[in-house]
Amino acid sequence: MKHISIILLAWLGISQAGGDLYTCKNAAISIYSKAPIEDIEAKTANGTSVYNAATGDMAFSVPVKSFKFQKSLMQEHFNENYMESDKYPNATFKGKVQEHPDLSKDGTYNVNATGDLEVHGVKQTRTIPGTLTVKGGVVSLNTEFMVKCADHKITIPTLVFHNIAESIKVQVSATYSKYQGK
Question: Can you give the residue ranges of the Lipid/polyisoprenoid-binding YceI-like domain (predicted)?
């Protein structure tokens, strides 16, 4: 996980540690599909994120194969048939938080991050709303948004069209620590 944080720091163009850098190594991410025949849910706690409070730069990365499903067959189909996880191993977001909340004070701040969401190798520019909470020096982020399968060229065969929703709900919960660079 440390390597992923370093990659995200490099990805954001951050070469030096600073007091405004926050990292998360175990962001909880869930995906949920509600369809007429069955609901499908998967979760992972392997998301990583870097947030530069001074510039608003934010990056997320999650290994697609880390999502766990209730049924192993669902997980196999997700990775092999829909997400092509060997070819596109990570889902990512790289963008900027538009607001500049004062992280030195406890509070809850509504924020919007605008940037590129890359899923299945296809980037889409998105503005994603979320809530940043500061409590006792701990910074956490929660967000929920929808991702259309067609926007990322994820093809759902007509045979299982009633099993998988056209849009997937994504929930993210991340708790950040101040970056302790070497």
Answer: 45-175
